[in-house]
């Protein structure tokens, strides 16, 4: 069991990251600016068997963790509970009002901004779909 947030802010070469890569036999995918659009390089750690994808920035720091809560797009649902995350029908229980919210094509979302990270939840009529955890400096406006 592991918490997908545990690597936020860690470097790809950190002991914790290397341990995860070895434990689950994962690879780092280097995503370069092939179209010369001036976008920053990124590094991805995709773990579809456990419904989790992480992204590191050009400085090799993990800034985002995506967690599938239902099987979709070739990814399994994240298999372990996140003890402080409880879906309350229109957000996260006990987290107070969201910083932002919206909906599009039957998918609703809320975002909670905290000092250490932002948390974005998506859901539809079937229940929660995805959680995204982001370091504050990668939180889009």
Which features characterize this protein?
single chain, mainly beta, eight-stranded antiparallel β-sheet, 6% helix, globular
Model description:
There is one protein chain. With 141 residues, the chain is mostly beta strands. The protein has one domain. Helices cover 6% and strands 35% of the residues. It has an 8-stranded antiparallel β-sheet with strand order 1-2-3-4-8-7-6-5, with no helix packed on it. The chain is globular. The model has no long low-confidence stretch (mean pLDDT 91).
How does the SSE layout of this entry go?
Layout: H1 15-23, E1 28-31, E2 42-47, E3 52-56, E4 62-68, E5 100-104, E6 107-113, E7 118-124, E8 127-134
Antiparallel strand pairs: 1-2, 2-3, 3-4, 4-8, 5-6, 6-7, 7-8
């Amino acid at each position: 069991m592991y918490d997908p947030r545990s690597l936020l802010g860690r470097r790809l070469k950190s002991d914790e990251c290397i341990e995860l890569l070895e434990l689950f036999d994962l690879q780092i995918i280097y995503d370069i600016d092939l179209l010369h659009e001036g976008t920053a390089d990124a590094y991805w750690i995709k773990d579809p068997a456990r419904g989790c994808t992480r992204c590191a920035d050009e400085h090799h720091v993990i800034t985002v963790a995506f967690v599938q809560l239902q099987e979709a797009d070739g990814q399994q649902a994240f298999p372990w509970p996140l003890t402080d995350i409880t879906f309350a029908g229109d957000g996260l229980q006990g987290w107070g009002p969201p910083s932002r919210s919206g909906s599009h094509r039957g998918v609703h979302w809320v975002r909670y901004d905290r000092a250490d990270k932002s948390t974005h939840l998506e859901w539809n009529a079937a229940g929660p779909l995805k959680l995204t955890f982001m370091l504050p400096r990668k939180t889009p406006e």
